[in-house]
Amino acid sequence: MERPIHKRPAFSSPMTRSAILLLTNLVVITLGQNSNRPDNDLSYTRYPNYPPYCSQPEEMAKRAVPPLQSDDPDIKLIHVTSIIRHGARTPWSHQMMCWDGYWQDDETGVWNCDLTTMVSPPSAPFVEEVEDNPSLVDNEIDAELGSSSMFLFEKRYDALNHPPFLTNYLNGTCQEGQLILRGYEQELANGRHLRQGYVHDGLSINSSSLASMDERMRLFDLTTDDDDLGGRKPYEEPNLRYRADDGQRTLMSGQVLLRGMWGDIIARDSAITGENPVITVHTADYDIDVIAPRVGNCPRVADLWEEAIQSDSYQAFINSKEANTLKTIMVEELGNDFSNNVHDCLMTTMCTDRKLPEILDDYGRSNGGGKYGENIFQRFVDFGTYYY
User: Fold this and answer.
1) Span 308-345, pLDDT tens digits
2) Are 24 and 92 in contact (CB under 8 A)?
3) pTM of the predicted model, to two decimals?
4) I want to staple 367 with a disulfide (CB 3.0 to 4.6 A). Which of 187, 296, 337, 362 is the partner?
C-alpha cells in the first residue's frame, strides 16, 4: 500500500538534477480526544499476523529504494519520479456497506482522529506584492509565498461531536477517507527511504545508506557546493515538484513524506533565515483531475470498464465456485453482500487493530477448516482485489 514505486530514470552525464513527487494527502498531532479506539494507539497487538498491506513498522523497515542494476561507473542518476500511495486512512464513505452491525459497533463505526491539519493565510507582503504585479502569483521563485504569515489555523472536525443527534459522517472527529496516525508514520518512513536512497548528507547515522555507499545514486549531495541546484534548496522548485490530487489523505501524505525526507534540512534553513520555507503543491479540482481515470475526462474509460467486466476471464471469476462461496459467507454469515467494499472493510478494520468478525479472523493461521475451508480472510482479499 505504501511502497514507493520508482519509475527508472534515464541516465546520462550530470546535468540539472530534480525529483518529482506525484500523489494519486503542515500537520499537527493533538492528543486526548475520546474514542473507544483512539487514533493515537499505534499498536498492532490484536492479531498474531498482519498482511503486508497494513505496513506496520516491521514491514516498513524491510522496504527501501532498490540499488542500480548496472555496475557501469559512468552512470549517474539525474532525475527521479516517485509515485506514492497515501498512508493508512479511515473508511472512504459512511455509506460503505460492510458486514451487518459494522456501523452500529462503536469499535468499527466510530472514528476519532488525533491527526489534524494546519492552514495558513498568505502573508500581507505577499498579497500586496501580487496586487501590484498579478504575474507573480505563478512565480514562486520571485514572490514571497507566505513565509512571514503571522499565525496558523488548526482544523478540527469536532463541531458536530454530540452523538447520537449531531455527528460527522464517521460518528467522530475523523473525515471520510482521511489520513490517520498510522498513515503518518508510514509516510515518514517512506520519506526516510527516499532520503537514504537519493540524498548524501554526510551524517554518520546515514553512513550505510544507498546514496552514501554509491555515488551514482546521489541525486542530491549535501556535502558539496552543488551548482546543479541552481542556487535553490533541494526541496524547492525546480529541484523538487510536488503534485497531488486535492484529497486530504494524499495532500497530507505528501507533506509528511517530504518532512521525512527533508525535515531536518528545512528546520536548519528556517533557523538560519528566520522564515518558514514554503513548498508548493500543485493540484486541481478533485472531480476533474487527470491523476485518476474519470469518465468525464475520457468517455472511453466507461467502454474499457465495461469491456473488462464482460470479458471471459472476469465472468469466469465472478461466476466461479469460489466467488459464490464467498458471497454465501457474506450473506449467510455476515448479513450483507459487500462485494464492492471487501478490501476497504477488511483492511480499515484489521490494519487499525479493530475487531474482525470471527469467521474472517484467520489471517496467517489455521481456522481448523470447517464448512467454508481455510484462509477465509486471504480469500476475501483476493476476491476484493481481482475486481480492480
Assistant:
1) 999 999 999 999 999 999 999 999 999 999 999 999 99
2) no
3) 0.84
4) 362
